[in-house]
Amino acid sequence: MLFSFLTLSLILSGFPACTNDLTDDPGKGTAVEASFDIILAYPNLSFTRPVDFQHPGDNSNRVFVVEQRGVISVFEDDAKVSDKKVFLDIESRVDDKGNEEGLLGLAFHPDFEDNGYFYVNYTVNDPSRTLISRFQVSPNDSDQALAESEVILMSYEQPYDNHNGGQVAFGPDGYLYIAVGDGGSGGDPKGNGQDGTTLLGTILRIDVDQPADGQQYGIPADNPFANNNEGFREEIYAFGLRNPWRFSFDPETEWLWVGDVGQNTYEEVDIVKNGGNYGWNLTEGFHCFKPEKNCDIPEESLPIWEYDHSKGDVSINGGFVYRGEALPDLEGKYIFSDYVSGRIWALDFTDLKNPVNTEILDADFPISSFGVNKAQELLICGFDGKIYKLSQKE
């Protein structure tokens, strides 16, 4: 069942506010003037199509790299490291035949150090669908997960082999957030982005610690459609998204940043709020995707930034607000890139109404994803099989 923007506006007027409201700072954003290099973070290691980089938050010095084929590796976060271990191998379960299919995301439970739980997002076939599953680490070896420990939390259809989203991450509220694409093809032919009865085209939020109603998870009480009578999916946190491949939480503001991949003309960066409608497939960026239709949406649901395809940038890769110490000129900037062009930008959002975006580097390889280590330093997954990092020139 499709519902209109007018209906949505009436529904949204009753939505609870985001925990951290977006407020305009009177300061003026500035362009980044420092110069940067991109260097190998772990010169002695290589991977097959790495798509995610995570640390477990357990006070160890370990990091984890997700390979699209269905393998997760673990190793010490040390530039001199020369060995990695297979943490989890579910390659036989994963369908990665499409460019946007496979093992796509990894999230460690906030109490991973005690319960050993972690969560993955991957695609399967027969029928084509996405699984959100929990696994557990071996009690005898913290570098070895138990492949047989899988508990499937949820499953949802994938009508086409693209636009699968892929990110899973725990928010500052302790809930698990899941990025779900619109189901694929082009132009959202099934209208999933504006259909509250499907999980597709959304950011989901679930409570993995309080399962209820015969499911492996519960619904947070302030989810926008919790206890609705309209048949809308209660797992939905925000909707109207095309393919939110990567999102992240800023640990300082707790804002949820999403890079949403566009169709033919515009890519967008969103700061996503509880109950927000980000326009797809009526809008693309700030623009009407179908000009003949009404595409007015609330100002608070508009992107904070967009870029067009005129310079060969055609597939946004959401990143992180930088909160490390090694790159002081990037402090507080949102770092993101384009998968196809390899360009990396820093967005100064000091003034939310007039952000300033600066290109800081043009990589010569496709960037599939960003990640951070326990020190909040930024790492970059190259689809060439290497993990990189930025280095600020003197």
Roughly how much helix do the residues carry, as a percent range? under 10%
Rg calculated over all Cα atoms: 20 Å
Instruction: Work out the number of β strands.
Output: 26
Number of helices: 2
Q: What topology, given as strand order, has the largest sheet?
A: 1-26-25-24
What portion of the residues fall into strands of 2 or more residues?
35-45%
Oligomer: single chain
Residue ranges: pLDDT <50 for 5 or more in a row? 1-21
What structural class is derived from the secondary structure elements?
Answer: mainly beta
The largest β sheet comes out as:
4 strands, antiparallel
The averaged pLDDT comes out at: 92
**Helix/strand order:** HEEEEEEHEEEEEEEEEEEEEEEEEEEE
Approximate shape: globular
What descriptive keywords fit this protein?
disordered N terminus; mainly beta; 4-stranded antiparallel sheet; 26 strands; globular; 394 residues
Tell me what you see in this structure.
Strand 10 (168-170) and strand 11 form a beta hairpin. The chain has 394 residues and is mainly beta. The protein starts with a helix and ends with a strand. Residues 1-21 have low confidence and may be disordered. It has helices spanning 5-12, 112-115; strands at residues 36-40, 50-54, 62-67, 71-76, 85-89, 103-108, 117-124, 129-138, 141-157, 168-170, 176-180, 202-206, 236-239, 246-249, 256-260, 266-272, 283-284, 287-288, 305-308, 316-321, 334-338, 343-348, 356-362, 367-372, 378-382, 387-392. The protein has a 4-stranded antiparallel sheet, with no helix packed on it. Helices cover 3% and strands 38% of the residues.
